[in-house]
């Protein structure tokens, strides 16, 4: 009888021990941040991946020319003034357009927006990470890098003609190449020179290199090796220092010119016009915009739109009319305005309200205004992104990830996804915790019932 009582007491003690641990686990799970709402709106849920960077000293206001002056005369009376106002990071010659852009905003809203100039987009990402800037406009390939490597998120996107939020990634070649070979395909340009709007950009690099990777079927090559082994020369300026491939548009082993002659879609087309390369990978409307008769024609625009054709990835050519149909590598999400994950909600809401204000459309996006570099030439306005960044980038993010896997161990890419997908990782953690609680509840239920049942 004494043994039974002792055994029974021990059983009750163990039941109580497990019950208290269950309560402790429940409290821990309850204290975890809740996952993002199922609607997925970036502007609703914003868990900070890292604490906001506090820059020593007071924030710098605008100088007379609209660029960060380093002199403090500001106040913190509005959301825009938090952390030094709204600081737009402009790359190279974008700064002139940025000055015009912020001057229109400041006149209409009375808030303090300013421009921060950097040499490359990578420098802007670093400046935003350090708290020296707030916003930068990036195309989809670079936006994925900002999302993965710099804890940034997409908050707004460009809107094009017909309210489109995508554009087509295409290859453009000289018409004579198509007329001389009715069955022409991308393989016919193996051993020729190529023009790319930028290393790691979606339409200029990731989409075509991902396609060529399937053609060469060599799993041992990284993206640069795929390009340089397929083409005899490559002109691909990079927004990351040291990653230029310019043996088609500069001297061997030299970086591309810092002035960006061959950067972006227009630069890749210029490379083709000047016959530095024989195929250009660009946005679908590039030739229409920058040809001799185009609305964005330049001094180097010495050829007509009729001198070029789309080269279809599956073979054959098509007339250039801005709508390549299935003669494309795929649709690319519109360029995005990227901001740090740690940006305060109040400041982000002010930025979105300003950028999507319809009263700014005429002043900022009219075809004949000065702002032709800060945004894509066909931009008609900006819209708030109501998806998490990874979902907005969609297929483009998958292709960018495929390219990254060629250059880095798979485990590293996977870890980037977990560390930076803030709106996804929190949700996953919450779900796993809930699953554990359910399993333990089922295991402890008989013990708890035994404690409550009279013996």
TrEMBL record:
Keywords: Signal. Residues 1-29 form the signal peptide. Residues 55-79 are annotated as: Disordered. Residues 86-411 form the Transferrin-like domain. It comes from the Eukaryota. CDD domains: PBP2_transferrin. Pfam families: Transferrin. GO terms for cellular component: early endosome; extracellular space; plasma membrane; recycling endosome. One of its GO terms (biological process) is iron ion transport. The keyword Nuclease does not apply. This is Transferrin-like domain-containing protein. It comes from Psophocarpus tetragonolobus.
């Amino acid at each position: 009888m004494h043994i039974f009582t002792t055994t029974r007491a021990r059983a009750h003690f163990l039941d109580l021990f497990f019950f208290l641990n269950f309560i402790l686990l429940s409290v821990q799970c309850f204290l975890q941040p809740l996952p993002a709402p199922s609607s997925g709106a970036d502007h609703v849920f914003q868990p900070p991946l890292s604490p906001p960077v506090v820059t020593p000293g007071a924030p710098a206001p605008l100088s007379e020319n609209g660029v960060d002056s380093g002199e403090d005369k500001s106040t913190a009376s509005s959301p825009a003034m938090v952390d030094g106002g709204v600081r737009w990071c402009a790359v190279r010659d974008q700064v002139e357009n940025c000055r015009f852009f912020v001057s229109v905003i400041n006149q209409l809203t009375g808030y303090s927006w300013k421009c921060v100039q950097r040499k490359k987009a990578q420098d802007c990402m670093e400046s935003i990470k350090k708290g020296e800037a707030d916003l930068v406009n990036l195309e989809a390939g670079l936006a994925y890098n900002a999302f993965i490597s710099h804890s940034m998120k997409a908050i707004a996107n460009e809107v094009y003609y017909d309210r489109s939020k995508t554009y087509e990634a295409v290859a453009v070649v000289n018409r004579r190449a198509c007329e001389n070979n009715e069955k022409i395909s991308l393989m016919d340009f193996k051993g020729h020179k190529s023009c790319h709007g930028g290393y790691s950009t979606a339409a200029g690099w990731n989409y075509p290199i991902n396609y060529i990777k399937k053609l060469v079927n060599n799993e041992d090559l990284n993206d640069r090796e795929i390009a340089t082994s397929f083409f005899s020369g490559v002109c691909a300026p990079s927004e990351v220092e040291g990653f230029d491939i310019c043996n088609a548009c500069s001297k061997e082993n030299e970086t591309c010119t810092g002035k960006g002659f061959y950067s972006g879609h227009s630069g890749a087309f210029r490379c083709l016009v000047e016959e530095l390369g024989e195929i250009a990978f660009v946005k679908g409307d590039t030739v229409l915009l920058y040809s001799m008769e185009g609305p964005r024609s330049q001094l180097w625009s010495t050829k007509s739109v009729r001198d070029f054709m789309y080269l279809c990835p599956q073979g054959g050519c098509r007339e250039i009319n801005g709508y390549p149909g299935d003669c494309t590598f795929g649709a690319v999400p519109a360029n995005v305005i990227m901001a740090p994950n740690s940006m305060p909600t109040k400041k982000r809401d002010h930025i979105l309200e300003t950028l999507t204000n319809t009263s700014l459309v005429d002043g900022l996006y009219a075809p004949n205004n000065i702002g032709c570099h800060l945004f894509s030439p066909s931009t008609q306005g900006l819209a708030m992104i109501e998806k998490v960044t990874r979902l907005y980038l969609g297929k483009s993010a998958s292709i960018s990830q495929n390219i990254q896997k060629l250059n880095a161990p798979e485990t590293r890419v996977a870890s980037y996804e977990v560390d930076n997908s803030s709106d996804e990782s929190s949700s996953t953690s919450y779900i796993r915790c809930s699953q554990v609680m359910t399993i333990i509840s089922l295991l402890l239920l008989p013990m708890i019932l035994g404690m409550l049942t009279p013996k």
